[in-house]
Amino acid sequence: MFKFLYKLLYFKLCLFPFMLLSTEGKRKPNIIFLLSDDQSTYSLGCYGNKDVKSPQLDRLADDGMVFDRHYDTTAICMASRASVMTGMYEYKHGTNFGHGDMLRKTWENTYPVILRRNGYRTAFAGKFGFDLREEPNGKRLPLPEKDFDMWGGGPGQTNYSTIKNESMKHYAKDYPHSTRSYGAFGRDFILESVKSDKPFCLSISFKAPHKPATPDPIDNHVYEEKTFNRPANYGRKYGEHFSKQSKQDRQYERFHSWNYSDKYDEVMATYHQQIYAIDVAVGMIRKALKESGTDKNTVIIYTSDNGFFCGSHGYGSKVLPYEESSRVPLVIYDPRHANSGKKFRTSALTGNVDFAPTILTLAGLPVPQNMNGKDLMSVYDDPKSSLPHSLPLINVWGKAPTHALGVVTEKMKYLFWGYAAKGFKPSNELYNLKKDPLELKNQFSSSEYTKARKKMQKLYDQHLTHWKENAVAYNNYQKFGILFDRKLKWDEKIRRVKSFSSK
To answer: CA 143, 363, 201, 68 torsion: positive or negative?
Structure first.
């Protein structure tokens, strides 16, 4: 009998590690979603900039996968953040500056709410980015603090001074600048979460490097007296071929007013210093994952809500559907995956609408049919694969001439600027992004690109049809289904918009 029990115990001890592995494999992964604000791809070492210091993010890139063709379908924070949460294009969630807030019923189908409803412990910190209402013209609701297990979020743009952010001020003594405070928040949430038997999802939205430029003084030494190489498409002469419409709002004048033209090194030093602080915060979070023993089962996603021109083409700021504004960094790390640690990159076309479906799929949950995005982990499985979609590039913010709709594929981009009042004419732009990633030559009128032009315009028309069929009936989105119609004359558009508005 003793001999039998000894053999049984020996067998169980030998099997125990494999049982653990089997159990571990069935556990839902933890998920960390990190979002910067106004970050260009040109700001990271892993995207080829040798002038910058981003060791933690570069290490994350080495551990995971770098996405070289990732776009924000709307290149402005409010709309982009709403697309991240909902997995929907702007005209479907109906949220942007100058248009209106998100409806509560739309919020109920965002990835943080769905995850918590299905057993995840959730947290949010930083710039929330939009407000909620029950109805389009109803009273603005409080931020959804109660929809998270731990809350460090704030209204509006939040503040770089930690003490001025109500939900974060208890971190002010140790972390007076907000960027590192969010790293501390993430650390604390991770360490608290291991006490529960629930998987967790941490979402952090850094204010940095959004204007006004306010670097953490502790990092002043990082870029002191640094000289930065200018992008190959820097300056006004590289934007002369852009549409007249694109030059009618603040993005154009900010090349001068934000000193890219005369104080480039100084401006870029403060910009990258703010990103360096994000890098430190990411390091704090990854250290907490390792110390808590959750690092092997935690997927990390790092990206930005929109890009930044930083003087490229002679523009400042963001919003417009050009590469520097709409294409942003994306790094995903899944420690459970066989492709991790191989320094893989992918040129697959991906967008901000893909995050919500990806996060829900990682959690083993069904993706709501209203979401427009795809599961990014299919690309993680095969970096050479493609997602079966093109992406719209939307701008309906700011002055009317700059309103534009475009479509981008893995190789091409087509933009339509429809405004044709006050001396303007409709403008078309076509770029071969594979051969011309800096968008230096508009190929719309080139006979060599006749076939490509027709294909891209067909895709454009398909996206516009989707807009007409799916745009929310509030917040002034339906009229753009008319204004972006490239086949209608301007006078006819105005007539139809007026007729539509009077109904």
So the answer is: negative
Q: What are the average pLDDT values for consecutive 10-residue runs of the chain, which has 503 residues?
A: 43 38 63 98 96 98 98 98 98 98 98 98 98 97 98 97 98 98 98 95 98 96 96 97 97 97 98 98 98 98 98 98 98 98 97 98 98 97 92 98 98 98 97 98 98 98 98 97 97 91 61
Contact 33/203 with Cβ under 8 angstroms?
A: yes
Burial class (CB in 10 A: 0-12, 13-18, 19+), 439: buried
Q: What are phi and psi of 126, to 5 degrees?
A: 105, -155
CA distance 319 to 72: 10
In DSSP terms, 116 is beta-bridged to none
Rounded Cα distance between 122 and 102, Å, is 20
User: Is the distance from CB of 93 to CB of 107 less than 8 angstroms?
Assistant: no
DSSP for residue 346:
E
Helix (H) / strand (E) element for 429: namely strand 427-432
CA–CA separation, 407 and 412 (whole Å) = 8
| Domains of the chain, earliest start first | 30-389 (3.40.720.10), 393-502 (3.30.1120)
For 390, the 3-state DSSP assignment is: coil
SS (H, E, C) 398-418: CCHHHCEEEEECCCEEEEEEC
For tokens 């947290």, name the residue.
Answer: 123
DSSP string, 246-276: GGSSHHHHHHHHTTTTT-HHHHHHHHHHHHH
CA 263 to chain centre: 28
Q: What are φ and ψ of residue 470, in 5° steps?
A: -125, -5
Query: Any idea how long the chain is?
Result: 503
CA 213 to chain centre: 20
Q: How far apart are CA 271 and CA 222, in angstroms?
A: 12
**Contact present, 251 and 317 (Cβ < 8 Å):** yes
Rounded (10°) CA dihedral 471, 112, 206, 70: -50
